[in-house]
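note to self — DONT lose this again. spent like an hour looking for the file last time. sequence + predicted structure for the chain T wanted, 426 res
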Amino acid sequence: MNSSLLGLLFAVLIAIRTPIFLTLGGLALLMFWIDGEPLISLAQIVVDHLNSETLVAIPFFVIAAAFMTEGGIAKALIDCANAWIGRVRGGLAIVCVVATTIFAAICGSSVATAMAMGAILIPAMNRQGYDKRFSLGIVGASGTLGILIPPSLAFIVYAIIAEESVPRLFLAGVIPGLLQAGMFIAIALFYAYKRGYPKGEPLTRDEFIAVNLHALPALSVPVIVLGGIYSGIVTVTEAAGLAALAALLTSVVFYRECSVKDIIPVMARGIKSTAAIVFIILMAMAFGHWITGSGLPQKLVEFAAENQMKPWMFLAFINILLLFLGMFLEVFAIMLIALPILLPILDSLGINLIHFAVVMTINMELALLTPPVGLNLFVLSSVAKEPMSEVVKGIVPFVIALFILLIIVTYIPQVSLWLPNLIYGY
C-alpha cells in the first residue's frame, strides 16, 4: 500500500476519534489483506507477543496503582513529606513534588499519580491561598514523574518492543527523574517567595514521630519492589506481583481505606485499565510487524546515510516529531507506532537504545501535558472541576522546565547512562 495513503487513512481514523487499538488493528488487517498474506498470520503475531513474561508485569503494576490511588497510600506519603518540609515557605508545593516522586516509585503510571495526588493536594493548596493555576500546574507536571521514576510502565513497554533490559531502563530513569523533581522544586520555591505563599504549621515531636510511623507501610512498598529487583531476589514480573500484593495489604490492613469487600471492585478497575493497554500493545505489534516487513525502516536508514545525518541532527528531528505526535496521541500509542520504525535507524547511527528510551519517555511526559490530548490535563480538569484553559495556563512554567530537561538528556547521554553502566557495566 502506498505510504501516503496509509498515512492519510491513519490521520482520518484518528481525526474521527476511532479508538487507537481499532485504528492500529484495522490498518494492520487491511495491509495484510492487500499484501495477500494469510490473515491467520496476523493472529499468530498477536498470540506470540502475548507469550511474554515482561508483559505480565503490566497488569500487576496497574492493580498496584489502583490500590494506591484508593487505599490511603497517597495521603500517608503526603503527610510524611509535609512533616519533613512543610515548614518551608511554599512547603505544600514542595511536598507535592516530593510525595509524587515517592508515589511514582511505587505506581508506574502518570495518570494514576496525578489523579491520586490531585484529589488531596489541590484542595489543600487552595485552602492555604495558593494560586489556582499554580496548584493545578505543579500537580499535573509532577504527575508525569510516574512514567520516568522506576518502576515505569512506559519503560516496560519500551523493553518489550526494543528487547532491552528492564532493570537497566529503570536505572536510566533515576537521575533524569531526580533532576526533573529538583527543577520543579526550584520553580515552586521561586513562586513561593515571589507570591508569598505560606509556611506550614510545625509539628510537635510526638506528631512528627506518629506521622512518620504511619507512613512506614507506604514507604516500604518501593523498597520491596526496587530492592527485590536490584538484589536479584525477584524478576521484574515477580516484583510487579509483589507491588500489587503489598499495595493491597497496605491499603486494606494498615490504612483501611479499602475494605475486604472493595478488593474485587478495585482489582476489576485495574484489570479494565490493563486490558486497554494490552489491546493497544498487541494491535500496535501487529501494525509494527507490517511496517518492518514493508521496508520503510530500511528506506529511512538509507535516507539518513545518503544525507550524512549526524546522530544529534536525527535526535533533534525525532524530538520535534514526538512532540507533534504527543499533541494528538496518547503515550503508549506513540511509543508503539514510532519504535518499530525508529529502532533500525537508531542502531545504524550508533544511538544507545537505553539513552533513547529516556529521551522518548521525557517526550511522552510532555505529551501528557500538551493539548489537545494531554491526559494529565483532562485528569486535573476533572479532579479540580476547573476548565481546561486554567490547567493549561498553570502548566506552562513546568513544560518549559521539561523542555530544558529534554535538551540536557538528549545531548548529554551520561545523565541517563551513568547509573545503569555503573551497576551493570558497559
